[in-house]
Structures are given as C-alpha cells and as structure tokens.
Amino acid sequence: MFGGQNMQQMMKQAKKMQKQMEDEQADIAKTEYVGHAPSDLVLATFNGDRELKDLQIKEEVVDPEDVDSLSDMVIVAVNDALKQIDQDSQKRLGQFAPKGMF
Length: 102
What we know:
It is built from two helices and three strands. It is α+β, with helices and mostly antiparallel strands. The chain has a domain at 25-86: Nucleoid-associated protein YbaB-like domain (Ybab, Chain: A), CATH 3.30.1310.10. Strands 1-2-3 form a three-stranded antiparallel β-sheet. Helix 1 (4-30) runs antiparallel to helix 2 (67-93). The longest helix has 27 residues, at 4-30. It is rod-shaped and about 75 Å long. Belongs to the YbaB/EbfC family.
C-alpha cells in the first residue's frame, strides 16, 4: 500500500513529532504556575507535574474565628494554578493530539 520510501518518511516524521512532544512535556514540567486567590491573599505555586511547591498566605487573612474563609481562598488559589497547567498543556500539546485528549 505504501512505498518503502513513503513509510520511512512517515516514520521519521512521527519520531520528530514524538521528540517535540516530549520536549514540550519537559518544558511544562519545569514551568511554575502560580494560582491566585482574590487580592493575592493566598498564592499556590505548582510545577507542571502538579506538585505543590509553595503556598503563601498573607497574615491579614488568618483569622482564627474564620478558618472557613482561609480554606476557601486556598482552594481558589490551588484550583487556579491547576487550571493554568491544564490550559498551558492544551496549548502546547494540543497540536500533537486529537481535540479533547489533553
């Protein structure tokens, strides 16, 4: 069905795309994503492998009488960072896969 030359060319192109995808995945893993709660009262920093690297909580948000608000802000910051990872992964890797895979 395919000529030997065409098959070799297709294999070469597939290997090139695989290498590009691996490079993008490595770049994503090294990238830091910072999630923000309102007014930057809580910042959550992740790497592209979804590992939490830093969590900063501003002193003014710590109220022993209102722990729920602090919890909510941490959740917002964490979810914001994870959303950024998803969006960046889709942007960088979407060109290598069918829509909806990432």
